Protein backbone atom coordinates (compact mmCIF):
# COMPACT_ATOMS: atom_id res chain seq x y z
CA UNK A 1 0.00 0.00 0.00
CA UNK A 2 1.11 3.51 -0.74
CA UNK A 3 -0.13 5.80 2.01
CA UNK A 4 0.64 8.70 4.33
CA UNK A 5 0.33 9.40 8.04
CA UNK A 6 -2.62 11.71 7.48
CA UNK A 7 -4.48 9.01 5.48
CA UNK A 8 -3.84 6.43 8.19
CA UNK A 9 -5.07 8.91 10.76
CA UNK A 10 -8.19 9.64 8.71
CA UNK A 11 -8.95 5.91 8.63
CA UNK A 12 -8.53 5.74 12.40
CA UNK A 13 -11.06 8.54 12.97
CA UNK A 14 -13.54 7.53 10.24
CA UNK A 15 -13.05 4.71 7.69
CA UNK A 16 -15.76 6.14 5.43
CA UNK A 17 -14.01 9.50 5.22
CA UNK A 18 -10.84 7.58 4.29
CA UNK A 19 -12.76 5.84 1.49
CA UNK A 20 -14.21 9.10 0.14
CA UNK A 21 -10.79 10.74 0.26
CA UNK A 22 -8.33 8.01 -0.70
CA UNK A 23 -10.29 5.48 -2.76
CA UNK A 24 -13.12 7.45 -4.38
CA UNK A 25 -10.84 10.51 -4.56
CA UNK A 26 -13.71 12.93 -3.98
CA UNK A 27 -12.28 16.41 -3.68
CA UNK A 28 -13.70 18.87 -1.12
CA UNK A 29 -13.00 22.59 -0.75
CA UNK A 30 -10.58 23.54 2.01
CA UNK A 31 -12.49 24.58 5.14
CA UNK A 32 -11.49 27.49 7.43
CA UNK A 33 -9.57 25.24 9.86
CA UNK A 34 -7.50 23.60 7.11
CA UNK A 35 -6.84 27.00 5.49
CA UNK A 36 -5.70 28.46 8.83
CA UNK A 37 -3.44 25.47 9.56
CA UNK A 38 -1.78 25.64 6.12
CA UNK A 39 -1.23 29.40 6.36
CA UNK A 40 0.31 29.20 9.84
CA UNK A 41 2.59 26.36 8.70
CA UNK A 42 3.56 28.44 5.64
CA UNK A 43 4.31 31.44 7.88
CA UNK A 44 6.51 29.32 10.17
CA UNK A 45 8.41 28.18 7.08
CA UNK A 46 8.71 31.82 5.92
CA UNK A 47 10.11 32.83 9.33
CA UNK A 48 12.81 30.17 9.22
CA UNK A 49 13.88 30.06 5.63
CA UNK A 50 15.04 33.66 5.62
CA UNK A 51 18.67 32.79 4.95
CA UNK A 52 21.31 35.15 6.29
CA UNK A 53 18.90 37.66 7.82
CA UNK A 54 15.69 36.06 9.12
CA UNK A 55 12.47 38.02 8.60
CA UNK A 56 11.40 40.36 11.39
CA UNK A 57 8.13 39.96 13.29
CA UNK A 58 6.66 42.67 11.04
CA UNK A 59 7.74 40.77 7.90
CA UNK A 60 6.15 37.59 9.25
CA UNK A 61 2.89 39.41 10.06
CA UNK A 62 2.89 40.96 6.58
CA UNK A 63 3.40 37.53 5.04
CA UNK A 64 0.52 36.12 7.09
CA UNK A 65 -1.92 38.91 6.17
CA UNK A 66 -0.88 38.99 2.49
CA UNK A 67 -1.86 35.33 2.13
CA UNK A 68 -5.16 35.69 4.03
CA UNK A 69 -8.25 34.63 2.11
CA UNK A 70 -11.57 35.96 3.41
CA UNK A 71 -13.56 33.84 0.92
CA UNK A 72 -12.86 30.71 2.97
CA UNK A 73 -14.92 32.04 5.89
CA UNK A 74 -18.73 32.21 5.91
CA UNK A 75 -18.93 33.92 9.24
CA UNK A 76 -17.17 37.33 9.69
CA UNK A 77 -16.87 36.76 13.47
CA UNK A 78 -15.11 33.44 12.85
CA UNK A 79 -12.81 35.13 10.34
CA UNK A 80 -11.88 37.94 12.75
CA UNK A 81 -11.20 35.43 15.54
CA UNK A 82 -9.01 33.27 13.27
CA UNK A 83 -7.01 36.27 12.02
CA UNK A 84 -6.46 37.51 15.58
CA UNK A 85 -5.32 34.04 16.60
CA UNK A 86 -2.80 33.93 13.78
CA UNK A 87 -1.39 37.35 14.76
CA UNK A 88 -1.18 36.23 18.41
CA UNK A 89 0.69 33.05 17.44
CA UNK A 90 3.26 34.95 15.36
CA UNK A 91 3.79 37.64 18.01
CA UNK A 92 4.03 34.98 20.73
CA UNK A 93 6.60 33.06 18.72
CA UNK A 94 8.84 36.10 18.29
CA UNK A 95 8.48 36.94 21.98
CA UNK A 96 9.68 33.50 23.05
CA UNK A 97 12.13 32.43 20.32
CA UNK A 98 14.85 33.92 18.18
CA UNK A 99 14.50 32.51 14.65
CA UNK A 100 18.21 33.11 13.95
CA UNK A 101 19.23 30.86 16.84
CA UNK A 102 17.58 27.68 15.53
CA UNK A 103 19.94 25.27 13.76
CA UNK A 104 17.51 24.09 11.13
CA UNK A 105 18.57 21.41 8.66
CA UNK A 106 15.25 20.93 6.84
CA UNK A 107 11.87 22.63 6.49
CA UNK A 108 8.72 21.00 5.12
CA UNK A 109 10.89 18.15 4.01
CA UNK A 110 9.27 15.42 1.87
CA UNK A 111 10.00 11.79 2.76
CA UNK A 112 8.92 8.27 1.97
CA UNK A 113 9.70 5.23 4.10
CA UNK A 114 9.19 1.54 3.37
CA UNK A 115 7.84 -1.00 5.84
CA UNK A 116 7.71 -4.72 5.00
CA UNK A 117 4.92 -6.90 6.37
CA UNK A 118 5.40 -10.54 7.44
CA UNK A 119 4.66 -11.74 3.89
CA UNK A 120 7.48 -9.53 2.60
CA UNK A 121 5.09 -7.05 0.94
CA UNK A 122 6.50 -3.54 1.02
CA UNK A 123 4.28 -0.63 2.07
CA UNK A 124 5.30 2.97 1.43
CA UNK A 125 4.41 5.79 3.79
CA UNK A 126 5.15 9.27 2.62
CA UNK A 127 4.67 12.75 4.01
CA UNK A 128 6.45 15.93 4.95
CA UNK A 129 8.22 16.89 8.19
CA UNK A 130 7.61 20.50 9.26
CA UNK A 131 11.10 21.04 10.64
CA UNK A 132 14.29 19.17 11.56
CA UNK A 133 16.77 20.91 13.87
CA UNK A 134 20.33 19.86 14.60
CA UNK A 135 20.92 19.68 18.32
CA UNK A 136 24.23 19.40 20.16
CA UNK A 137 24.21 15.61 20.20
CA UNK A 138 21.53 14.61 17.71
CA UNK A 139 18.40 15.93 16.00
CA UNK A 140 15.00 17.29 16.90
CA UNK A 141 11.99 16.63 14.69
CA UNK A 142 9.35 19.32 15.11
CA UNK A 143 5.74 19.12 14.05
CA UNK A 144 3.72 22.32 14.42
CA UNK A 145 0.23 21.99 15.85
CA UNK A 146 -2.52 24.61 15.74
CA UNK A 147 -4.80 22.66 18.13
CA UNK A 148 -5.73 24.66 21.21
CA UNK A 149 -5.69 21.70 23.57
CA UNK A 150 -2.41 20.03 24.40
CA UNK A 151 -2.48 16.23 24.74
CA UNK A 152 -0.95 14.24 27.60
CA UNK A 153 2.74 13.28 27.53
CA UNK A 154 1.67 9.62 27.26
CA UNK A 155 -0.20 10.33 24.01
CA UNK A 156 2.84 12.10 22.57
CA UNK A 157 5.00 9.10 23.39
CA UNK A 158 2.59 6.90 21.44
CA UNK A 159 2.08 9.36 18.60
CA UNK A 160 2.10 7.50 15.29
CA UNK A 161 3.03 10.60 13.30
CA UNK A 162 6.19 11.27 15.30
CA UNK A 163 7.11 7.63 14.99
CA UNK A 164 6.82 7.76 11.17
CA UNK A 165 8.93 10.93 11.17
CA UNK A 166 11.59 9.12 13.18
CA UNK A 167 11.70 6.36 10.54
CA UNK A 168 12.10 9.05 7.89
CA UNK A 169 14.97 10.68 9.79
CA UNK A 170 16.69 7.31 10.26
CA UNK A 171 16.39 6.66 6.53
CA UNK A 172 18.07 10.00 5.88
CA UNK A 173 20.73 9.59 8.59
CA UNK A 174 21.12 5.79 9.10
CA UNK A 175 24.05 6.27 11.48
CA UNK A 176 21.60 7.87 13.97
CA UNK A 177 20.10 4.42 14.63
CA UNK A 178 22.80 4.10 17.33
CA UNK A 179 21.92 7.52 18.73
CA UNK A 180 18.16 7.12 19.33
CA UNK A 181 18.33 8.58 22.82
CA UNK A 182 19.43 11.90 21.34
CA UNK A 183 16.68 12.17 18.74
CA UNK A 184 13.88 14.29 20.09
CA UNK A 185 10.40 14.02 18.61
CA UNK A 186 8.45 17.15 19.40
CA UNK A 187 4.94 18.41 18.88
CA UNK A 188 5.04 22.21 18.99
CA UNK A 189 1.74 23.72 20.12
CA UNK A 190 1.73 27.17 18.61
CA UNK A 191 -1.18 28.51 20.67
CA UNK A 192 0.84 27.78 23.81
CA UNK A 193 4.34 28.31 22.36
CA UNK A 194 5.17 25.04 24.10
CA UNK A 195 6.56 21.67 23.03
CA UNK A 196 5.83 18.15 24.15
CA UNK A 197 8.75 15.85 23.40
CA UNK A 198 9.24 12.10 23.23
CA UNK A 199 12.30 9.91 22.70
CA UNK A 200 11.78 6.40 21.35
CA UNK A 201 13.91 3.28 21.72
CA UNK A 202 14.31 0.16 19.52
CA UNK A 203 11.40 -1.59 21.26
CA UNK A 204 9.03 1.31 20.56
CA UNK A 205 10.17 1.42 16.92
CA UNK A 206 9.26 -2.27 16.56
CA UNK A 207 5.87 -1.66 18.21
CA UNK A 208 5.25 1.34 15.96
CA UNK A 209 5.94 -0.72 12.83
CA UNK A 210 3.51 -3.40 14.02
CA UNK A 211 0.88 -0.74 14.67
CA UNK A 212 1.24 0.63 11.14
CA UNK A 213 1.06 -2.84 9.58
CA UNK A 214 -2.01 -3.63 11.70
CA UNK A 215 -3.67 -0.43 10.46
CA UNK A 216 -2.81 -1.24 6.83
CA UNK A 217 -4.25 -4.75 7.37
CA UNK A 218 -7.45 -3.22 8.79
CA UNK A 219 -7.78 -0.88 5.80
CA UNK A 220 -7.29 -3.75 3.36
CA UNK A 221 -10.19 -5.70 4.78
CA UNK A 222 -12.40 -2.81 5.86
CA UNK A 223 -15.93 -2.21 4.63
CA UNK A 224 -15.42 1.45 5.57
CA UNK A 225 -18.16 2.22 8.09
CA UNK A 226 -18.99 5.84 8.92
CA UNK A 227 -17.87 6.64 12.47
CA UNK A 228 -19.18 9.83 14.05
CA UNK A 229 -16.27 11.63 15.72
CA UNK A 230 -15.33 15.11 16.99
CA UNK A 231 -13.98 16.09 13.54
CA UNK A 232 -17.33 15.50 11.79
CA UNK A 233 -18.26 19.17 12.17
CA UNK A 234 -15.38 20.05 9.85
CA UNK A 235 -15.74 17.12 7.45
CA UNK A 236 -16.19 18.12 3.82
CA UNK A 237 -18.16 14.91 3.08
CA UNK A 238 -21.21 15.64 5.25
CA UNK A 239 -23.50 15.90 2.22
CA UNK A 240 -22.51 12.41 1.03
CA UNK A 241 -22.28 10.82 4.48
CA UNK A 242 -25.17 8.57 5.65
CA UNK A 243 -24.71 9.86 9.22
CA UNK A 244 -25.53 13.42 8.12
CA UNK A 245 -28.26 12.56 5.61
CA UNK A 246 -31.06 13.91 7.78
CA UNK A 247 -29.45 17.36 7.96
CA UNK A 248 -29.67 17.77 4.19
CA UNK A 249 -33.12 16.18 3.71
CA UNK A 250 -35.56 18.29 1.69
CA UNK A 251 -38.32 19.79 3.84
CA UNK A 252 -41.66 17.91 3.73
CA UNK A 253 -44.67 17.26 6.03
CA UNK A 254 -42.71 14.63 7.94
CA UNK A 255 -39.74 16.88 8.57
CA UNK A 256 -41.95 19.51 10.25
CA UNK A 257 -43.29 16.86 12.66
CA UNK A 258 -39.83 15.42 13.18
CA UNK A 259 -38.46 18.87 13.96
CA UNK A 260 -40.97 19.20 16.84
CA UNK A 261 -40.01 15.83 18.35
CA UNK A 262 -36.29 16.45 17.97
CA UNK A 263 -36.54 19.89 19.54
CA UNK A 264 -38.66 18.55 22.40
CA UNK A 265 -36.07 15.84 23.08
CA UNK A 266 -33.22 18.39 23.11
CA UNK A 267 -35.19 20.68 25.46
CA UNK A 268 -36.04 17.82 27.82
CA UNK A 269 -32.44 16.62 27.78
CA UNK A 270 -31.14 19.98 29.02
CA UNK A 271 -34.04 20.39 31.48
CA UNK A 272 -33.29 16.99 33.05
CA UNK A 273 -29.60 17.83 33.14
CA UNK A 274 -30.15 21.13 34.97
CA UNK A 275 -32.82 19.54 37.20
CA UNK A 276 -30.29 16.92 38.25
CA UNK A 277 -28.08 19.66 39.64
CA UNK A 278 -31.02 21.30 41.45
CA UNK A 279 -32.20 17.88 42.69
CA UNK A 280 -28.79 17.29 44.33
CA UNK A 281 -28.97 20.72 46.02
CA UNK A 282 -32.50 20.12 47.37
CA UNK A 283 -31.51 16.62 48.51
CA UNK A 284 -28.74 18.04 50.64
CA UNK A 285 -31.22 20.57 52.15
CA UNK A 286 -33.63 17.72 53.00
CA UNK A 287 -30.77 15.87 54.67
CA UNK A 288 -30.02 19.00 56.69
CA UNK A 289 -33.67 19.27 57.86
CA UNK A 290 -33.64 15.58 58.89
CA UNK A 291 -30.42 16.14 60.85
CA UNK A 292 -31.81 19.24 62.58
CA UNK A 293 -35.15 17.57 63.41
CA UNK A 294 -33.39 14.32 64.33
CA UNK A 295 -35.86 12.33 62.19
CA UNK A 296 -35.57 10.08 59.16
CA UNK A 297 -39.02 10.81 57.72
CA UNK A 298 -40.40 14.22 56.70
CA UNK A 299 -44.01 15.16 55.88
CA UNK A 300 -45.58 17.95 53.85
CA UNK A 301 -48.96 18.69 52.24
CA UNK A 302 -47.73 16.86 49.11
CA UNK A 303 -46.42 13.68 50.74
CA UNK A 304 -43.49 12.36 52.71
CA UNK A 305 -39.78 11.67 52.26
CA UNK A 306 -38.08 8.73 53.95
CA UNK A 307 -34.36 8.20 54.35
CA UNK A 308 -33.23 4.74 53.29
CA UNK A 309 -29.66 3.59 53.79
CA UNK A 310 -27.86 1.72 51.08
CA UNK A 311 -24.52 0.33 52.14
CA UNK A 312 -21.72 -0.91 49.92
CA UNK A 313 -18.95 -3.06 51.30
CA UNK A 314 -15.42 -3.89 50.41
CA UNK A 315 -13.97 -7.33 51.03
CA UNK A 316 -10.49 -8.52 51.70
CA UNK A 317 -9.75 -10.22 48.36
CA UNK A 318 -7.14 -12.68 49.65
CA UNK A 319 -9.47 -14.01 52.40
CA UNK A 320 -12.43 -14.30 50.00
CA UNK A 321 -10.32 -16.17 47.47
CA UNK A 322 -9.16 -18.62 50.18
CA UNK A 323 -12.70 -19.17 51.51
CA UNK A 324 -14.40 -19.58 48.11
CA UNK A 325 -11.71 -21.57 46.34
CA UNK A 326 -10.38 -20.68 42.86
CA UNK A 327 -13.40 -21.88 40.84
CA UNK A 328 -16.05 -20.04 42.85
CA UNK A 329 -13.78 -17.03 43.17
CA UNK A 330 -13.58 -16.69 39.36
CA UNK A 331 -17.35 -16.94 39.05
CA UNK A 332 -17.90 -13.97 41.42
CA UNK A 333 -15.42 -11.77 39.58
CA UNK A 334 -17.07 -9.47 37.09
CA UNK A 335 -15.09 -8.23 34.14
CA UNK A 336 -14.77 -4.47 34.13
CA UNK A 337 -14.55 -3.36 30.49
CA UNK A 338 -13.17 0.09 31.08
CA UNK A 339 -10.42 -1.30 33.37
CA UNK A 340 -9.64 -3.94 30.75
CA UNK A 341 -9.31 -1.22 28.10
CA UNK A 342 -6.82 0.68 30.26
CA UNK A 343 -4.76 -2.44 30.95
CA UNK A 344 -4.90 -3.45 27.26
CA UNK A 345 -3.40 -0.10 26.24
CA UNK A 346 -0.21 -1.05 28.10
CA UNK A 347 0.09 -4.48 26.43
CA UNK A 348 2.14 -5.34 23.33
CA UNK A 349 0.25 -5.31 20.05
CA UNK A 350 0.11 -9.15 19.76
CA UNK A 351 -1.73 -9.41 23.11
CA UNK A 352 -4.03 -6.53 22.17
CA UNK A 353 -4.98 -8.50 19.05
CA UNK A 354 -5.69 -11.62 21.14
CA UNK A 355 -7.97 -9.59 23.41
CA UNK A 356 -9.78 -8.25 20.34
CA UNK A 357 -10.26 -11.83 19.10
CA UNK A 358 -11.65 -12.89 22.50
CA UNK A 359 -14.33 -10.15 22.25
CA UNK A 360 -17.93 -11.21 21.55
CA UNK A 361 -20.93 -8.91 21.25
CA UNK A 362 -23.20 -9.61 24.23
CA UNK A 363 -25.95 -7.10 23.69
CA UNK A 364 -26.38 -3.78 21.99
CA UNK A 365 -28.14 -0.82 23.59
CA UNK A 366 -28.03 2.81 22.66
CA UNK A 367 -27.88 6.24 24.20
CA UNK A 368 -28.79 9.46 22.42
CA UNK A 369 -26.09 12.09 22.50
CA UNK A 370 -27.32 15.68 22.32
CA UNK A 371 -25.53 18.78 21.05
CA UNK A 372 -27.32 22.12 21.10
CA UNK A 373 -26.61 24.83 18.53
S1 LIG B 1 -19.18 13.44 8.45
FE1 LIG B 1 -18.18 12.27 10.08
S2 LIG B 1 -19.00 10.21 9.86
FE2 LIG B 1 -19.40 11.26 7.92
S3 LIG B 1 -17.65 10.80 6.61
FE3 LIG B 1 -17.21 12.71 7.64
S4 LIG B 1 -16.03 12.11 9.45
FE4 LIG B 1 -17.08 10.28 8.70
Keyword list:
alpha/beta, 373 residues, Lambda Exonuclease, Chain A, two-stranded antiparallel ribbon, binds iron/sulfur cluster
Please tell me about this protein's structure.
The strands form 2 sheets. Strands 1, 2, 3, 4, 5 and 6 form a 6-stranded mixed beta sheet that branches. The protein has a two-stranded antiparallel sheet with strand order 7-8. A hairpin with a 2-residue loop joins strand 7 (297-300) and strand 8 (303-306). Helix 1 (5-13) packs across helix 2, helix 3 (32-48) runs antiparallel to helix 4 and helix 4 (57-66) runs antiparallel to helix 5 (76-96). The chain is built from 12 helices and 8 strands. The chain is α/β, with parallel strands linked by helices. The protein has helices at residues 5-13, 15-23, 32-48, 57-66, 76-96, 153-157, 160-172, 202-220, 253-293, 317-332, 337-345, 349-357; strands at 2-4, 104-116, 122-134, 139-145, 183-189, 194-198, 297-300, 303-306. The protein has 2 domains: 2-239, Lambda Exonuclease, Chain A (Alpha-Beta Complex); 249-373, no CATH class. The longest helix has 41 residues, at 253-293. It is 48% helix and 15% strand. The model has no long low-confidence stretch (mean pLDDT 90). The structure holds iron/sulfur cluster. The site of iron/sulfur cluster has 15 residues, from helix 2.
Q: What is the succession of H and E elements?
A: EHHHHHEEEHHEEHHEEHHH
Tell the overall outline.
globular
Ligand catalogue: iron/sulfur cluster
Largest sheet: 6 strands, mixed
Count of spatially separate domains: 2
**SS element count, helices:** 12
CATH architecture of the largest domain: Alpha-Beta Complex
| Low-pLDDT stretches | none
How much β-strand is present in the residues? 15-25%
**Mean pLDDT metric:** 90
Rg from alpha-carbon coordinates: 28 Å
CATH topology of the largest domain: Lambda Exonuclease, Chain A
By secondary-structure content and strand pairing, the structural class works out as alpha/beta
DSSP strand count: 8
Distance between the termini: 41 Å
Percentage of residues assigned to helices: 40-55%
Amino acid sequence: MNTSYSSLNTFRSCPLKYKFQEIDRIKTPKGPEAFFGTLIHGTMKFIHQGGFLPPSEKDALNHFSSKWNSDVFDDPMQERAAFAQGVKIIQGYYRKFRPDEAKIVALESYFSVEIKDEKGVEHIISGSIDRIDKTEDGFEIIDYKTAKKMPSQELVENDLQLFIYLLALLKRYPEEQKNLKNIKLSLFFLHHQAKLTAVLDEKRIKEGKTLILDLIGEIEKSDFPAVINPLCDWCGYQKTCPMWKHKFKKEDVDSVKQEEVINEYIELYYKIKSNKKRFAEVKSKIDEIMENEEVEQLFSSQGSITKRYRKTFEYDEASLRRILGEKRWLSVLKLNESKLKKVAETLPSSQKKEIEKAKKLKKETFTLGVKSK
